[in-house]
């Protein structure tokens, strides 16, 4: 049996060790340590994200440490790889940092001071320390009680076990072990054990500690210490063998028992060594999620479901730690494995991936059997039998125009047409398709995603447009200027249908066509053409309301020899009036009035504004016909004054420039021009009118002053006359 005081000592010592590390770590190591290497010195508290970086160890100069120190990247321990000599170097100043590959510092630097021959107070793990102070009475050693050490003690070695002291100066200590054992003493009298002890190898050691001076002379007889190796818990708990996976249905309530573990320990029954408790190692609870998926009773080993729900298809390997000594420090443990398989139930209703499809346009002459749309539904259940689906048309198909087609084990269903469509009977259809699970559903019923609506629009079938000719031909002189009208393309029924025209293969870019009117003009001068050549393009006409309906006809252009240029005299253009701000008015510009070629139909005039940029900005010129053009304002506001607009008129090979005089003025509400009126004869100017008014006012003021002065003088004269000189009234 193990003494009770040793159990208390083993349990209490680790709790007394300091947990906090100072800002600068200090580690002490005995000089010329004779144990095994590498020797673990201290563990650094690296952050959790340490796995993302690399631990770097450097000296006091910032360079990589070249010496007997290294870092264990897995555990974060600082370790020494060989024995140190204080005479070579008494202290080592190190720095530890955590850096990324691009040398960015994630943590640190953490300074670490390593002193040689100082006490190692950074031991960690399960420790049992017995400190014995020996006082000197009349230069003799005091007898000590035996030191008890546990067998196979799991601590950081060398491990401090006792301390002796000899009063005086210049004291050195020397240790002898009988039989030879793993013990050592430093200059301060600290006793160490350098490795684990085994009772089968040796159950008791006798240590002799000598106190010497610097010359190696003993002060007195040695101090004799007895070290007793105590028999410890040697048997590891044995877990039951791992069996087949335990099946747990999905949505099982919390508290459902999964399995019950029963580990065995070969130590004495009823003793602390055979008292086994259980602890669940995994799965750990997720961050931000309350509760765990599994729980274990520490006494009985019963594994039950927790509050966190499980998902079907999960295969979970539970790790349960079985510990003897009732889980106390220094005991043995084994990891038991339990495999759990979460089986599926039919708790998910099938749903369509898209709830709205379309609108899908179908012509009314489409043949029955045509695939209208393909719908896809999914089921979150894992069991194949729970994923079988049944489809049906719920509403929107009263007359059976549509039907469904699908495979039993497929989630795809096709909506097909069964009857002919009619635009007059139904221009649109909204077909609602529902999906259900074949197996009985457990839990809530189908949600809104169990239906999908397919919108079908029926298109009226119309014949393609038809033009008034199946082939068009036109002749044009090679000297025709840009903008010359060649011909007009017209539909056969211009009243019922409106068309938009375009040219398809005008490779030379000689022609252009008005989209609405169908007028074909020359887009540029016909350079490079020869009389007698032909040029063929296609004229495409599209229905304005139905762009997919179109037709095309060929247009053949015959190039003619340029006629001789007539001698023409431009007609005079009288002045015209236009209003600003702009109104719906313009000026008609006509070509030369006498032109025998135009009268005989040899070609029209073309009109264009002069090359002046200001004129082209302020004015707009539109061709009305082969002999007239329409001149209007291009801007909303043009300065009111008389403008002279140059207009270039061309006919065949001749060109003229007409100067059109236009007076721009402000207009009244009736559209009449309001012109500025000059001063009439005999009318006074503004200055003279002001002078007359001022003179009249001055004269009136002088006249009033004279009247007031005369009245004042007369009043004073009456007041100064004597009283006796006042005439008396006659008495009657």
TrEMBL record:
Pfam families: Cadherin. GO terms for cellular component: adherens junction; catenin complex. Keywords: Calcium, Cell adhesion, Glycoprotein, Membrane, Repeat, Signal, Transmembrane, Transmembrane helix. InterPro entries: Cadherin, Cadherin-like_dom, Cadherin-like_sf, Cadherin_CS. Residues 21-129, 171-239, 240-352, 354-467, 468-568 form the Cadherin domain. CDD domains: Cadherin_repeat. One of its GO terms (molecular function) is cadherin binding. GO terms for biological process: adherens junction organization; calcium-dependent cell-cell adhesion via plasma membrane cell adhesion molecules; cell migration; cell morphogenesis; cell-cell adhesion mediated by cadherin; cell-cell junction assembly; homophilic cell adhesion via plasma membrane adhesion molecules. The chain crosses the membrane at residues 687-708. The keyword Signal applies. SMART domains: CA. Residues 1-18 form the signal peptide. It comes from the Eukaryota. It is found in: Membrane. This is Cadherin 16.
């Amino acid at each position: 049996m193990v003494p009770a005081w040793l159990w208390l000592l083993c349990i209490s010592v680790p709790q007394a060790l300091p947990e906090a590390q100072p800002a600068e770590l200090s580690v002490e190591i005995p000089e010329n340590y004779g144990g095994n290497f590498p020797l673990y010195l201290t563990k650094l508290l690296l952050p959790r994200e340490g796995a993302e970086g690399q631990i770097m160890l450097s000296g006091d100069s910032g360079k990589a440490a070249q010496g007997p120190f290294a870092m264990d990247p897995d555990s974060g321990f600082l370790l020494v790889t060989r024995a140190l000599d204080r005479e070579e170097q008494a202290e080592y100043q190190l720095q530890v940092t955590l850096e990324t590959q691009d040398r960015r510092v994630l943590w640190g630097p953490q300074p670490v001071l390593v002193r040689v021959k100082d006490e190692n107070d950074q031991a960690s793990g399960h420790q049992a320390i017995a400190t014995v102070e020996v006082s000197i009475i009349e230069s003799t050693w005091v007898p000590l009680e035996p030191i008890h050490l546990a067998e196979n003690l799991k601590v950081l070695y060398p491990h401090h076990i006792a301390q002796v002291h000899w009063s005086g100066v210049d004291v050195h200590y020397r240790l002898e072990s009988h039989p030879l054992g793993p013990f050592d003493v430093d200059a301060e009298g600290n006793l160490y054990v350098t490795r684990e002890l085994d009772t089968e190898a040796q159950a008791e050691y006798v240590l002799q500690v000598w106190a010497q001076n610097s010359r190696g002379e003993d002060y007195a007889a040695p101090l004799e210490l007895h070290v007793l190796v105590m028999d410890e818990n040697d048997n590891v708990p044995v877990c039951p063998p791992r069996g087949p996976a335990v099946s747990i249905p999905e949505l099982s309530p919390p508290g459902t028992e999964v399995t019950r573990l029963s580990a065995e320990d070969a130590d004495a029954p009823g003793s602390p060594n055979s008292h086994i408790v259980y602890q669940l190692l995994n799965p750990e609870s997720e961050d931000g999620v309350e509760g765990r998926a599994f729980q274990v009773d520490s006494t009985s080993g019963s594994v039950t479901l927790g509050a966190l729900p499980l998902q079907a298809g999960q295969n979970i390997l539970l790790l349960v730690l079985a510990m003897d000594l009732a889980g106390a420090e220094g005991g043995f443990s084994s990891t038991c494995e339990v495999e759990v398989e979460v089986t599926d139930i039919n708790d998910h209703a099938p749903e369509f991936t898209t709830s709205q499809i379309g609108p899908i346009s179908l012509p009314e002459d489409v043949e029955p059997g045509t695939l209208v749309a393909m719908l896809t539904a999914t089921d979150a259940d894992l069991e194949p039998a729970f994923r079988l689906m049944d489809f049906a048309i719920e509403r929107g198909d009263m007359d059976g125009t549509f039907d469904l087609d699908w495979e039993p084990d497929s989630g795809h269903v096709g909506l097909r047409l069964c009857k002919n469509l009619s635009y007059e009977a139904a221009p649109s259809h909204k077909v609602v398709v529902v999906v259900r699970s074949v197996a009985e559903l457990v839990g809530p019923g189908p949600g809104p995603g169990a239906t999908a609506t397919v919108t079908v629009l029926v298109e009226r079938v119309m014949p393609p447009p038809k033009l008034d000719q199946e082939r068009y031909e036109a002749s044009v002189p090679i000297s025709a200027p840009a903008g010359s009208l060649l011909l007009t393309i017209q539909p056969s029924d211009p009243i019922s249908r409106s068309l938009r025209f375009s040219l398809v293969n005008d490779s030379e870019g000689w022609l252009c066509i008005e989209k609405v009117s169908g007028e074909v003009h020359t887009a540029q001068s016909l350079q490079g053409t020869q009389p007698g050549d032909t040029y063929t393009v296609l004229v495409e006409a599209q229905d304005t309301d139905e762009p997919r309906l179109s037709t095309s006809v060929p247009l053949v252009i015959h190039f003619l020899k340029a006629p001789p240029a007539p001698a023409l005299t431009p007609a005079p253009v009288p002045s015209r009036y236009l209003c600003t701000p702009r109104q719906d008015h313009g000026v008609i510009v006509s070509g030369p009035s006498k032109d025998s070629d135009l009268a005989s139909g040899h070609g029209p005039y073309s009109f264009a504004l002069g090359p002046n940029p200001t004129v082209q900005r302020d004015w707009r010129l539109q061709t009305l016909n082969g002999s007239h053009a329409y001149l209007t304002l291009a801007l909303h506001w043009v300065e009111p004054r008389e403008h002279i607009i140059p207009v270039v008129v061309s006919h065949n090979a001749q060109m003229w420039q007409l100067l059109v005089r236009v007076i721009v003025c402000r207009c009244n509400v009736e559209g009449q021009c309001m012109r500025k009126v000059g001063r009439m004869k005999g009318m006074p100017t503004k200055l003279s009118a002001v002078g007359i008014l001022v003179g009249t006012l001055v004269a009136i003021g002088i006249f009033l002053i004279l009247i007031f002065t005369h009245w004042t003088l007369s009043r004073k004269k009456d007041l100064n006359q004597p009283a006796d000189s006042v005439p008396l009234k006659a008495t009657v």
